[in-house]
Design a protein that fits this description.
There is one protein chain. The protein has 7 helices and 8 strands; from the N terminus they run E-E-E-H-E-H-H-E-H-E-H-E-H-E-H. Helix 5 packs parallel to helix 6. By secondary structure, it is α/β, with parallel strands linked by helices. Residues 1-15 and 17-59 have low confidence and may be disordered. Helix content is 33%, strand content 18%. The chain folds into 2 domains: 9-56, no CATH class; 62-278, Rossmann fold. The strands form 2 sheets. A 5-stranded parallel sheet has the order 5-4-6-7-8, sandwiched between helices. The chain has a 3-stranded antiparallel sheet with strand order 1-2-3.
Amino acid sequence: MKANTAALYTVKTEPLTGKCFRYVRTKFASEPLSMYGALKNGGRYLLGYVTLADYRGEQTVKHILCFGDSNTFGTIDFAVTDRFDLQRRWTGLLASDLGPKCRIIEEGMPGRTTAFDDPLREFRSGRKYLAPCLNSHRPLDLIIVMLGTNDLQMRFSASAVDIATGIEILVDLIRKAGAGPEGGIPEILIVAPPPIGSIDPIEEPCWTGALQKSLQLPVQYARIAKQYQCHFVNSQEVLTTDDLGRDGLHLAESGHVKLAKLLSQKAMNILAKEAIGAN
């Protein structure tokens, strides 16, 4: 492939590996582009990888906040006070999938709601905790929000639309917090939580009607994501009740594996698009 060696080059960053593509504009723009070529315009050809450090003198790490409830915390089930260890819960698996150029910040709290105050347990409202959380961890490149399961309990008397409104409140807080790079808005990924399974008889009265409402959440969450131009994934597309533990609420190990795979691919796509938009 011919190239004008005196031409100026541009650099496009690959965000997850910390490497760059280097493109050279040639005067041979009419030449056919091969699979080893590069962009489909302007006669730019891919010359090869160069490290990001060659151009910036440092490596860029992407910061991802995972804001959720006990299924982000890694609770095994109601009868066990411990949680899955880092290598077995989805946040740890996500960190492994994305590699060292991404820092995963776990903010999962058992019992957390989207925006409701729990009359039986203090400090459970995601709405009240989110702002100081963002200020503690900024700047953030991506925020993953997976909440809504605890809102399904009878004592909150919340419909699927009400719970989605709680998500909307959180999205609004994120957009106004200035917690992204250079004080901007970070990327936001809304995750519809897993379905509800067969609840332990002791806990079941608290969850009457929860299954039906949980199945309505993806449609409502997708609506909020579209309205605010957020990213969205429906965990119920890959998770079934077979991926829940014996209490019917908390993810089994298989559920953590499946969720991590779903979110790692989504996160890579989001961060790649973010990098392209910045160049």
